[in-house]
Amino acid sequence: MTPLERELTAIIRQDGPLTIERYMALCLGHPEHGYYMSRDPFGRGGDFTTAPEVSQIFGELIGIWCISTWQMMGTPGEVRLVEIGPGRGTLMADLLRASKVMPGFAESITVHLVETSPTLKAAQARTLERSGIDIAWHGHLDEIPPGPVLIVANEFLDALPVRQLQLTETGWHERMVGLASDGESLQIGLSADPLPAALVPDWAAGADVGAIAELCPARDAYCRAIAERLATAPGAGLFIDYGHSISGTGDTVQAVRKHRSVDILHQPGNSDLTAHVDFQRAARMFTAAGLNVYGPITQSRFLAGMGLAERLDILTKRGDARRRMSLRSAAQRLVAGNQMGQLFKVLVATHPDVPEPAPFAQMAEAAK
User: Is 242:343 a contact under the CB 8 Å cutoff?
Assistant: First the structure.
């Protein structure tokens, strides 16, 4: 039993079963035993690898996107460059290095990282120390000073806890984490009483018995906060994550430990928990706030549109055969349909006055 599992067991004995949402929130964010609070989970020595850790090209192309969007905004002299959930700081480091090609951009930005993990804050500080740019850390988006803003969030929205509802013959019930008959081990069950119909999303109508619908109040809250920020000042948000383009039913909560899928009840606090992002819902929330929304498109299309092939060609001319092979393999992992290229989606939301950003403007022109 992990320390968190012992605590969860005690909570359930005292207060009854936990919703999936609360279980995920405690597993990931418990102040002492939460997964993200006390470890660096990235890379070969961790539990999973994100795109910035796969290839420097990923962060560099995000840097090019930021430059291009800044130009679309009219090159304001002061811009908040924000990353939400910045991992080790690898993406931001590559972004800042790539952005040096554009005179004026580095002088215009202030860098703001939204992070709650003390361990990851320390890792970000080490990674970004050589950038020569002052970094400000915040616990939430609303702490960032007002003004024009560029927001980047890569594999952040998937880490926010979800509610799970399951349809039975008696209606929709909340999925819960309780105790098995031995009184010790955790197991998943259903709430005794069906939920009010008003809590069930419209897109779940007509589902078959056994279907699971996921809701993410925390993700909704973040989307609202981002929408409010982008609606009040020139700016844009870039969101990259794995998920589905159309709202629908399905159990997408998953756990990973040591780069392998495990049961979501496996070693609470020691395993990463995520759920697929509902990009259609996020897009609707941004649109409802008056923002312009582009995508979602696949990560493969986005990176290709931002010049992945051209950047790869430049890098491979500089290295030996082993280096070239490594660069090509990493780039392929980013765009291959059976790896990150198709499952990962890209969504952009902008202030109404910001013109269509890259690569969407180029794709629209090519389609004419």
Answer: yes
